Structures are given as C-alpha cells and as structure tokens.
Amino acid sequence: MQDLSIREAAAGDLGIVLDLGRKFFNSVGWPGGFEWNRQKVIQSFMLFLTNDKFTIFIEPSGKGFCGVTVQEHFFTGGLVGNEMFWYVEPEYRKTSLGQLMWDTMEEWVKEQGGTHLAMVALDDSDGAKIGKLYESKGYVPIEKSYLKEL
Fold first, then answer.
1. The CATH number of 7-136 is which of 1.20.810.10, 3.30.2350.10, 3.40.630.30, 3.40.640.10?
2. Which helix (H) or strand (E) holds 127?
3. ∠ CA 142-144-150 to the nearest 5 degrees?
C-alpha cells in the first residue's frame, strides 16, 4: 500500500469533500427526516475555509477526511476541540490513515490553544470498538447523545 498523507482542505478539494461526505452521511444511518443536502455541504465547506476555528483534513486522493472545530467551553472558558466527522474508506481502515487523521486533529487543536478534544463514536456495530479504542488512548466517556425527529 502507498504512503498515506493528509493536509488541510482547500477550495479545490470540494469534490473530495462532497464524495466522502456523501459516503459518511450514508454510512451513519440517520433517522427519518435527515436528507443529504449537497448545497448545504458546499455552503458549509466554503464557510469553513474562512473560519480559523474549524478545519477539514483530507487524504489528497480521497481515501478519507475529518473535520474538527475548537471553541470555548460554555462553563469553563477553556478551548475544547470537537471532532465533527471522521471517515476513512473501508479498504483503508486497517492502515495508518485513521490514526494519522486522529493525531493531526489532536495536534491542530493544541496549536489553536485547545486543551481537550472530544471524539464521537457512532451508535452502531463499531461504536463499542471505537469507544474502547478512545479509552485506550486516554479519552474518557462523558455523555451519550440521543436524537429524535420533531
């Protein structure tokens, strides 16, 4: 397998973000009411390119991407990073790409002055495995989210 690398996304990477975003969206299995909105993804991507509190990292040939933000914690004022999405093509999940993205998100949050990073584990068949992986890297579970269509 070839060497894998990632970099921050640029405007010319919109096609990669749309392709991987659609795959991520479809893999999540969102409950009723959520539909893929290509125009919103384009609008959000362009906004995120100009926001220094959010970034998207991509593998340049489209094997994976992740998004991370940093913001003040509501109760403490400390800067906390939040993984917004993290997707690696299935055939590359046993490579170092996912770990490279994770390490890069952590480093980026630290560079922004962040002291913590919150990661998400989807509530699917891999969620428990991902949770155990997070815990093995020093993360602790703090809450579980629930979603209801209104």
1. 3.40.630.30
2. helix 127-136
3. 145
Using alpha carbons, select from 77, 80, 81, 76 the residue that is nearest to residue 66: 81
Amino acid of residue 77: G
The total of other beta-carbon atoms located within 10 Å of residue 20's CB is 23
Residue 68 dihedral angles phi and psi, to the nearest 5°:
-145, 145
Q: Where are the domains of the chain?
A: 7-136
Residues 10 and 123: their CA atoms lie apart, in Å, by 31
How high is the pLDDT of residue 127? 67
**Would you state the pLDDT for residue 147?**
77
Give the torsion sign (CA, 120, 140, 69, 86). negative
Low-confidence ranges of the chain (pLDDT < 70): 1-2, 124-125, 127
- Give the pLDDT of residue 121: 83
SS3 35: coil
What distance in Å separates the CA atoms of residue 31 and residue 10, rounded to the nearest whole number?
A: 31
Closest CA to 63 of 128, 126, 137, 3: 3
Give, rounded to a whole angstrom, the gap between the first and last alpha carbons of the chain: 46
